[in-house]
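Weekly sync, protein design subgroup
Attendees: M.S., D.O., the rotation student, P.L. (late)

Item 1: inverse folding check
M.S. brought a backbone from last month's batch and wanted to see whether the design step gives back something sensible before we order anything. D.O. pointed out we never logged the input encoding, so this time it goes straight into the notes. Structure tokens as presented (198 positions):
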């Protein structure tokens, strides 16, 4: 089918996420902190587009299954992959760090898939919006980005990350800070946590 205005807005969310990932990758080559700032800046803009796409779809009465799927894919990029790439860029690069970051992204995938599969069965208000979120919405990962932004602005990244590095054995090292990603991912897939949708 044709793309509507709301779908274009959703795609702009995805654009922001992809640009954020590229900025994080660019930092790995340039070591220019401005690339980190770019990576962190794109993600809130993605959330802005994510905020408006559903409202525009309801305003124009263009809500559709395609729009729902587009929204989930864009969210996965902007609020799943992009925050994980940022964590890697700022210094969480050990094998165990990447396992935790992979868990976080997979939780985001599971969260979005579960929402898409169950949204038709969830209670809705008069405007067609679901009444509550089951588990934290994936855009809450921006709280992780805010934490990393604070540390970057205070020169607490790379080898100066808070908590430093814990070595369990040779080749098995972990930055304790990466565990905030594990907590965020776990909250996303919680079945008992219900958050009223604004």
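Designed sequence read out in the meeting:
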């Amino acid at each position: 089918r044709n793309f509507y205005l709301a779908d274009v807005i959703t795609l702009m969310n995805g654009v922001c996420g992809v640009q954020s990932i590229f900025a994080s990758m660019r930092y790995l080559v340039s070591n220019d902190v401005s690339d980190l700032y770019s990576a962190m800046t794109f993600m809130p803009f993605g959330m802005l587009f994510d905020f408006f796409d559903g409202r525009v779809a309801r305003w124009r009465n263009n809500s559709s299954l395609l729009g729902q799927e587009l929204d989930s894919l864009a969210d996965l990029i902007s609020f799943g992959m992009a925050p994980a790439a940022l964590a890697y860029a700022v210094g969480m690069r050990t094998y165990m760090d990447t396992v935790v970051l992979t868990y976080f992204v997979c939780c985001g995938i599971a969260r979005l898939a579960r929402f898409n599969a169950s949204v038709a069965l969830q209670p809705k208000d008069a405007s067609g919006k679901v009444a509550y979120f089951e588990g934290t919405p994936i855009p809450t990962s921006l709280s992780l980005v805010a934490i990393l932004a604070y540390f970057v602005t205070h020169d607490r990244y790379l080898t100066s990350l808070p908590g430093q590095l814990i070595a369990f054995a040779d080749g098995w090292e972990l930055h304790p800070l990466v565990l905030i990603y594990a907590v965020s991912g776990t909250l996303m897939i919680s079945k008992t946590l219900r958050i009223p949708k604004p």
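Discussion: The longest strand covers residues 166-169. The helical segments are 5-30, 33-59, 65-90, 95-118, 142-153, 179-188.
Action: P.L. to compare against the previous round before Friday.
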